[in-house]
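Subject: sequence -> structure tokens, single chain

Hey, anyone have a minute? Need the predicted structure for the following. Not urgent.
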Amino acid sequence: MVNDTTGGNRRAGDEITLRVHLAEHRTSVPGAEGEELGVGFKAYLDEARTEEIVEDDRAPVLPGVFYSRVAGVRFHDDSLQLPQFGVGRHVEIRPEPPTALDRNGLGVFADGLRVGYVPEAIADVLAPAGTRIGHGIILMEWSNNGNRLGIWVLGSMQVAISVVNGG
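Reply:
Had a minute. Here:
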């Protein structure tokens, strides 16, 4: 279910926009080095907030749309701590050059800095987008003692994401 913001007057080639409604969310889990705190938003497809978009790092959650943790952040820990990778910030999803280990890599960037990658299972589905740059929004961040450990992104290579009635 992708909401078309054009009122049904969409023409071939017009951008499709997914409207997302947010609700503040805070949770904690015991971690290896103390309590890990998750702060951010839950995403919903409807204004009444009954149709939740649930995180899945193995497959897109809607056609062409993913909501997943960002993989490989431990290799970019310095970047991860920067403000541009905080909750509510927008990121770009860019194809990476193919390697022997990952032929469909999709990097997650802000202000020219890579913080990690879209998980491989999702990238393998989305990568046929060619050289197209996708976009996303950071909906959740996990931290321990003020040190950001991970982020979750709602993004797409194919549709625009618009946050409405929330924040």
